[in-house]
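Hey,

The postdoc asked me to send both predictions to you directly instead of through the lab channel. I've kept everything plain text so nothing gets mangled by the mail client. Protein one:
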Amino acid sequence: MREHAFLSASSAHRWLNCTKAPVLEQTVPDTTNIYAEEGSLAHEIAELILRAEINSNDFADIAEYEEFMSELKNNELFYEGMLNEIDIYTTYCIERYHEFKAKDKLTVIAIEQKLDFSKYVPEGFGTGDCVIIGDNKIEVIDLKFGKGVEVEVENNPQLMLYGLGALEAFDFLYNIEEVILTVAQVRLGGISSWSISAKDLKAWGEEVVKEKAILAFNGKGETVPGDWCMFCKFKGQCKARSQYLKKIYEMHKEKEKESLSLDELSDILKHEKLIKDWLKDVTEYALQLALSGIKIPGFKVVEGRSNRKIVDEERLAELLISLGYPEEKIYKPKEINTITALEKLVGKKEFEELSAGYVEKPEGKPTLVEDSDRRESIVQTVEDEFDFK
């Protein structure tokens, strides 16, 4: 089980923007979920594969390795296709190790390396999934097994802190000039990398991180809402979020106007996700309070709507058939599983190749997004047509 620092690298995006978040989150009990447990399993399997491939002397013999692997596969969260997804990460790590070694025979690789960045963050440390050092470079490779949120690698504070920790551990031996930060989102975006000079990374640590980290460690500074609230444990009860959204409302509260201007509409749309997320988080927090016996003024807990469910399909079908009802009316026609389930079965890359010509992606529903979105506009506006300056 991995240790966790008070100011963890994984939550750096949050505490660098909202320095009070860590101390507020301490008031909320820790919870786990199936996604975190699935990610932990994937990391254990990936570590085992890399150690067997690169540090085979970690095992007495092949039987010991197979015993460990068999134990991990027996986990209830393991599924067919998981190894194919993990292989994207392990293959990349092994290939990069050999690429480094071809240029520098003194190249080393560290798997599940503890990285200490306490020079910049009080008591700061984390774990680098795979760190390769050689040719005056360090590459920190981070395995992400989630598939809900795509992670941007450029200027990613978690990876940058890992990079600082790697420099602290190896720079004095290898005279590092460049730090390559790589994220392997094996179920979402594949492999992506970003490079920064060791000099610039250290400057970021000194000029950006240090001051914010001291404030966060001491529970000082400001409570600032933003997209970093997503994984904050305190988000459902955070007053700063409601105050921020109240300010947005007050900005557009002009009595002499009955309708929103285009600029006002644009400003509100830019905050759409923040508003929706806030309402969802507050509702969930209120429900948990109510379930614990705390009365929310004007509200009560009731049983929600649910659909009937057959709990023993086989026996019910047998009963109906025995009473003379036709079997073809009782069972659905055989149907193929979902694309997601088939990808898990076969592996994402292999399924993409095998399903060519059999799977198509229809046009998506028109969606309003900000101009900064990478997708091309599907509507020509009046301004576009006349090229207004």
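Protein two:
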Amino acid sequence: MAKGYWMVGLKINKPEQYAAYRAANGDAFRKYGAKFLARGGAFENPFGESWPVNTIIEFSTYEAAKACFHSPEYRKALDVRGDAIEIDLIIVEGYDGPQP
């Protein structure tokens, strides 16, 4: 079964409120087994537009990735986050097929 991922690009407008959101989202991420693969580190943007902060979060399945987003625990974190950030978030199914 393929893993699931959150691919996130964001801009932080209210750092203190964003810090509170990061503390609050831990309940949902622990419950659904989230693992951060990239979390705001250095990046290169050879094509297209980019966000100042980029994050990739891995889940054991695509279904777990979706369930985490729709969970009551994550909804509480979203209430804390409010308008602290501008964000694009994509939930995507991983690929388990043949590789080149």
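Summary for protein two, as requested: The mean pLDDT is 97.

Thanks,
C.
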